[in-house]
Amino acid sequence: MVTQTANALYLASVPMVCPADGPSGLIAILAGWVTTEVGRQPWVVYGLQRTADAVSAHGDLHMSISLLAFFVVYTSVFGVGYSYMVRLIRKGPQPFNIAPHGTPARPLSAAMTPTSQLEDRP
């Protein structure tokens, strides 16, 4: 990242702001879903039914509970995914050391080796 300040290649405040961008994906998904659903009015058949005649008999309480349930589910899934990614990042990469076995006999020799003869490889 090239910044305006003396062509520096690194600005210390940028990594500090990046974690705040985490919820932006969830907000974008929810905003897009709401915009799509409100904009298309799926319960109205174009040219056959007026929007005023398509109002459902559900009360505000039922709609609020439904919206709250969606919010809780989305937030829970986002929170679990975010905490899992943070745990993986904190754990760091696992070392993977392969001991040299000399020169392979031919390109497919590793494919022909029985799994019982392999070392503990993932």
UniProtKB/TrEMBL annotation:
Segments traversing the membrane: 65-85
Membrane topology: Multi-pass membrane protein
BP GO terms, sorted: aerobic electron transport chain
GO MF entries: electron transfer activity; heme binding; metal ion binding; oxidoreductase activity, acting on diphenols and related substances as donors, oxygen as acceptor
Region (Disordered): 101-122
Location(s), subcellular: Cell membrane
Pfam families: Cyt_bd_oxida_I
Residue stretches of biased makeup (Polar residues): 112-122
UniProt xrefs under InterPro entries: Cyt-d_ubiquinol_oxidase_su_1 (IPR002585)
PANTHER family to which the protein is assigned, alphabetical: CYTOCHROME BD MENAQUINOL OXIDASE SUBUNIT I-RELATED, CYTOCHROME D UBIQUINOL OXIDASE
Homology family: Belongs to the cytochrome ubiquinol oxidase subunit 1 family.
Protein name: Cytochrome bd-II oxidase subunit 1
Native source species: Kluyvera cryocrescens
